[in-house]
Amino acid sequence: MIISARELALNVIYKVHTDKGFVNPLLSKAFTKSKLSRLDKALTTELVYGTLRMEGSIDWIISQFSSRKINEISPKALDILRLGVYQIFYLDKIPARAAIDESVKLAKKNFHQGIANFTNGILREIERNKDKIIYPKKEDDLVTYISIKYSHPKWLVQKWIREMGPEETEDLCKENNVRPKLKLRTNLLKNTAKKLANLLKKKGITTFPSDLLPEGLVIADGLNLDELEEFKKGLFFVQDESSMVVSHVLSPQEGETVLDICAAPGGKTTHLAEIMKNKGLIIAIDINSARLCLLEQSCKRMGCEIASIVELDALKLDKLLRKPVDKILLDAPCSGLGVLARRPDARWRKNSQQIRELAILQQKLLESAARFLKCGGRLVYSVCTISNEETLDIITNFLDTHSEFELEDINDRLPKQLKTGDKWIQFLPHKHKTDGMFIASLIRIK
Questions:
Q1: Is residue 210 within 8 Å of 217, Cβ to Cβ?
Q2: Judging by DSSP bridges, how do beta strands 405-408 and 207-209 pair with one another?
Q3: pLDDT digits (tens, 9 = 90+) for 38-84
Q4: Which residue among 72, 105, 159, 291 has the highest number of C-beta atoms inside a 10 angstrom radius?
Q5: Could you tell me which residues come within 8 angstroms of residue 412 by beta carbon, excluding any fewer than 6 positions away?
């Protein structure tokens, strides 16, 4: 059965909402079963990511024109409306008439004439009154204004305003709606960034050197890079610069033993091996067996020969280790609030309770890891989030009860553009044009 880009987009969005599935694997799975052209796949991706990302703003618009409350509309009919509104408001190349007609077709196919008429009526009314929609005023209600204008949950806007102030919050929320650039880390075991750029250029892929790191490349256009021969040969890893910096901060040396906790899917493990020139030992552990498969694939593809991969709960390291190691990387599970631009559905999945629970886990993981670090050794803690509870609070709480550790100044290992007045770094998407990432380093002094 031939399925259109819009229908495929609707199916993925509906599954994200009803099955609580994650958008990236759902979209990849949908593409493998479809016969869509490359252009239609690009349209599907845009519709899925954009509609999920702007869902808060879209629902605000729909609520002003629907006689039924949002939660009273059939979930699939609501997703059809959301797709239509996204095209009308956010896609310049699709005429409003086409967006409405295609939405009505989807309603007819999935429901009956009554829902099709409902869809048609609301979308046409919205299109006719685009300029008359009432939005919250900034001076009257700052939180609701930012929440609706930039499509973020109110609790998160409130939290960020408390932690960063209103201007930073608005800039961050705005940046989260910008499609992030795809970035590569050159596998320095196999080539150089310049050689890789030339190879990709021959495939019609334009890259630019990273401003931050010599092994980094920025892709001009989004592509399915995992289909490239260069990817299969392990010439690069898709990774943001903020994640690359983590390995540089740990700075492992040839011949050392490194413990890599929560290592899957292997971006940092393989980078550590490159920095160590495949000399030494990386004990890469993860609790998730499915993700361990990804880690094994990454190591094999990238030529990482020094990783010993172990399925283990990082809170039970004493089952594996008998003596302390030279260096430890704890890239802890986190709320992922720093990568909302890449995960459009994530902002609607998070809540304050999850953050509190994650902070407890992060503290326990840090306690567990610290027991196996040599005196004089380095322990780097990183999380891809922007949340005080998961970042500096974790480090501060740890140091309050562990006089045998000191917070180390990492500025000597940061790219010169990133030097800070602090000993640690918090990457912010709107400031650094990277994913949000917190990195701190602890030294065991006794």
A1: yes
A2: unpaired
A3: 889 989 999 999 999 999 999 999 999 999 999 999 999 999 999 99
A4: 159
A5: none
In this structure, which amino acid lies at residue 101?
D
Q: Which of 230, 57, 25 is nearest to 154 (CA)?
A: 57
pTM, 2 dp = 0.93
Catalytic residue check, 384: yes
Which has the closest alpha carbon to 281: 297, 267, 266, 269? 269
Sign of the Cα torsion 84, 88, 89, 90 reads positive
3-class SS of residue 41: helix
Q: Which two tokens stand for residue 293?
A: 């498969």
Taking the chain, what is the end-to-end CA distance rounded to the nearest angstrom? 67
Confidence of residue 263 (pLDDT cuts 50, 70, 90): very high
Q: What are the C-alpha distances in Å from 301 to residues 118, 129, 247, 294, 304?
A: 52, 54, 19, 10, 8
Q: What is the pLDDT of residues 137-150, one digit of tens each?
A: 999 999 999 999 99
Whole-number Å distance between alpha carbons of 100 and 96: 6
Say which residues have a Cβ less than 8 Å from residue 194's Cβ, sequence separation at least 6: none
167-170 long-range contacts (CB < 8 A, ≥24 apart) are 168/428, 168/430, 170/146
Yes or no: say if 212 and 236 are a contact pair by the CB < 8 Å rule. Answer: no
Rounded CA separation 96/43 (Å): 16
By the 10 Å C-beta count (0-12 exposed, 13-18 middle, 19+ buried), 101 is classed as middle
Peptide bond into 265 cis (omega under 30): yes
Radius of gyration for the alpha carbons in the chain, expressed in angstroms and rounded: 24
Q: Is the pLDDT of residue 91 over 70?
A: yes
How does pLDDT run across 120-174, given as a tens digit for each residue? 999 999 999 999 999 999 999 999 999 999 999 999 999 999 999 999 999 999 9
CB 182 within 8 A of CB 238: yes
* Three-state DSSP class for residue 155: helix
Tell me the three state secondary structure of residue 283.
strand
The answer to whether 416 and 224 have CB atoms below 8 angstroms apart is: no
